From TrEMBL:
InterPro entries: Beta-barrel_OMP_2 (IPR025665). It holds the Pfam family OMP_b-brl_2. The keyword Signal applies. This is Outer membrane protein beta-barrel domain-containing protein. Keywords: Signal. Residues 19-204 form the Outer membrane protein beta-barrel domain. It comes from the Bacteria. It comes from Macellibacteroides fermentans.
Length: 238
């Protein structure tokens, strides 16, 4: 709420300043900032535990949030918009083990017997978008944008559902990724509203293990997924 309050004040200032100075997006260069929310529903390609494929994988993701800085290079009705963005997302992944297998070892730790875990991620992302102003009549503008986004996963924390203990990452992990982004933006003076959809071009893979102090066992997990996300944001142009 505090962040939204600060953003509201900035938007009011930007609105007043834009009306007074009569500047718009025909400027050759501008930069801006935005805050927003994201809805993440990654596509799980596979989840394996000790080499056994989990079944009935179900994702429950909470609404995430983002903050971004960017610059815009305007060329008539077109523009190039590189930027840097921070994203936070968290949720839970539930699953079941296949029937007809020996589950004695697989259920030897709480992590497996709980058949679910929480995941929390923080990423730094660098989009480079090409935009086209479909409507450009001061003070209103409607633009379409598309382009690649480079992604680096800064942190990824796992914990079993209903248990404060955490997973310990091990083995190889792929923190880098590339997403394809497309979206629309509506602006009035220096205020704008964005809607984006992005999909992972490459598959992310994380190998991690869970070690418990209660039992001398360790379970190895492997998660393969692909980004599938929508985001909404409000911002200002300076």
């Amino acid at each position: 709420m505090k962040k939204l309050g600060i953003l509201t004040v900035l938007l009011i200032i930007a609105f007043t300043g834009g009306a007074q100075t009569q500047k718009n997006e025909t400027e050759g260069f501008s930069f801006g900032a935005k805050l927003g929310f994201s809805s993440t529903l990654p596509i799980i390609n596979s989840l394996t535990i000790e080499g056994v494929e989990a079944q009935n994988v179900n994702l429950q993701y909470k609404v995430g949030y983002l903050a971004a800085l960017f610059c815009r290079i305007n060329i008539d009705r077109f523009f190039i918009m590189p930027g840097v963005e921070w994203n936070h997302a968290d949720g839970s992944i539930n699953y079941s083990l296949p029937d007809g297998i020996d589950q004695t070892y697989l259920k030897s730790t709480y992590a497996v017997s709980s058949e679910g875990f929480n995941v929390e991620t923080n990423t730094i992302e660098v989009p480079v978008l090409l935009g086209f102003n479909m409507v450009k009549s001061y003070p209103y503008c409607l633009s379409f944008q598309a382009g690649p986004k480079l992604r680096y996963r800064v942190t990824e924390d796992f914990s079993p559902v209903g248990n404060p203990e955490t997973f310990k990452l091990s083995g190889e992990s792929k923190p880098y990724g590339v997403n394809a982004v497309t979206g629309v933006s509506v602006s009035i003076w220096r205020m704008f509203f964005d809607f984006y959809y992005e999909f992972g071009i490459n598959q992310s893979k994380t190998d991690f293990s869970y070690q418990t102090t209660l039992l001398p066992y360790e379970s190895n997990f492997s998660l393969k997924n692909r980004t599938n996300k929508m985001s909404f944001s409000l911002g200002i142009l300076f």
